[in-house]
Amino acid sequence: ARSAVEESLRPGRRIGLHEAMLDQLRSQPTPDLAVLGHHAIGTGDPAVILQVVPEGAAHAMASGAPRQAVTLWAAAIEATVRSDHDKAAPFRLEKAKAWFDLGRRDDAEAELQMALAHYRDQGDRHQVAEVLRLLSMSASNGGEAERPIEIMQEAIELLENEPPSPVLVESHLGSARQALILRDGARGWAHIERARDLASSLDDPAV
Q1: Can you say how many angstroms the Cα of residue 169 is from the centroid of all Cα atoms in its chain?
Q2: Measuring CA to CA, which of 33, 113, 149, 190 is 20 to 30 A from 13?
């Protein structure tokens, strides 16, 4: 019903309504972030969308509403095309996670591939490795055998000569899991030992 009313309004009036509702909601101590995002999108203003919608999308995921999160992340990504293109890649990673939660592996991997292309263009080795790690996990969850290890190996090679990092530790652990699935104990334990050595040199207690 709300959408029907909005669509019946002239564009200028509709945008004004969304702006007014957005101002009203922002004045509340705990506004509904999903409704806030809806009205931000309705303004059509990329700056407003990027200021409001990502928080709503993250909240939707945390609340167990991945379908809503996909819609909100899509709006945020579209807004980056008109304002800050560099923000699209991290938004695509989050959108991919929502697709995974919905069991839409192909859609998730499509988002990851677009994020991967951006990070490769930027020369961001750590983010490239992180996206490769996610792609490897997706391939493994899809029942593939050797391909997950091949993808993870590329991530490892990107970072092996860099200072130790959580991404490198996770990449070795991912390779270990897949090797053990394939009953390659020697390769699996080699990755586990390498991950242990790397983790011991990090200050991060979560690794």
Answers
A1: 20
A2: 33
Selection from 110, 117, 42, 98 nearest residue 75 by Cα = 42
Q: Taking phi first (over 0 means left), then psi (-120 to 50 degrees means alpha), and beta for anything else, what does residue 94 get? A: alpha
Q: What is the DSSP letter of 82?
A: T
C-alpha pair distances (Å), 197 with each of 166, 191, 201: 12, 10, 7
Burial 43-74 (b: 16+ CB within 10 A, else e): bebbebbbebbbebbebbbeeebbebbbbbbb
DSSP SS3 for 27: coil
| 8-41 confidence digits (pLDDT tens) | 555 556 677 767 777 777 777 777 788 888 888 8
Between helix 166-181 and helix 185-200 the angle, nearest 10°, is: 160
Which residues are CB-contacts of 62 (< 8 A; sequence separation ≥ 6)? none
- Residue 1 clears pLDDT 60, i.e. is over it: no
Token readout for 3 is 């959408």
121: tokens are 């263009």
Q: What is the tens place of the pLDDT at every residue in 139-177?
A: 999 999 889 999 999 999 999 999 999 999 999 999 999
The confidence band for 195, taking pLDDT boundaries of 50, 70 and 90, is very high
- Asked if 110 contacts 101 with a C-beta cutoff of 8 angstroms, the reply is no
Helix (H, G, I), strand (E, B) or coil at 124: coil
